[in-house]
């Protein structure tokens, strides 16, 4: 186990140095949820007034989940570049655990997501968000697990397709229904009945509800459903990502 962590830490350090040399895409990834928070958040006041509660306490959790999904799903693009430059081939000849090659990259993605989440939450608190410390911590943990699942799936997809031209439209096809049916921007209860029922089959919707519940301090069944789906998605994505890395390095 200590060998695994040492090997994954080496991969993480290399990935982190690459990011620090070119942080532009990290900053760009942070701009979208911040702009949503500043420009779209105030428009929610009459909407959230019908539900009760603070508009930013309702909106920031959705932006956290959006940040975890959209930011992490694009992590695989850098892996395609590494494969094309021969980095993956160079890692193949080392005795490192194949899962360490994945987890080292996940550490980088989760660290980036954590920093972005702290900035987003800090801005939300400045704007008037009202949430307990424990609820924020739980919401961030769920977001990090979801982000880890998306990053692992993105890496697996990258090594499967080995092409940005193939990967980009696949991600767009997945992201559109997730954004529209997960209730990230607006409550699904405000839509047509059939649309709300359809959203119940969207796992991300339950995770969004769980993160919101944690921020509001409502530890009810919606939180349990969200935690369950987060664990399931994380487990499946890590299994897929590890399997692909093992195949690539057989």
UniProtKB/TrEMBL annotation:
It is found in: Cell membrane; Membrane. Keywords: Antibiotic resistance, Cell membrane, Membrane, Transmembrane, Transmembrane helix, Transport. It comes from the Bacteria. GO terms for molecular function: ABC-type transporter activity. It is a multi-pass membrane protein. Belongs to the ABC-2 integral membrane protein family. This is Transport permease protein. It comes from Nocardioides simplex. The lineage of its organism: Bacteria, Bacillati, Actinomycetota, Actinomycetes, Propionibacteriales.
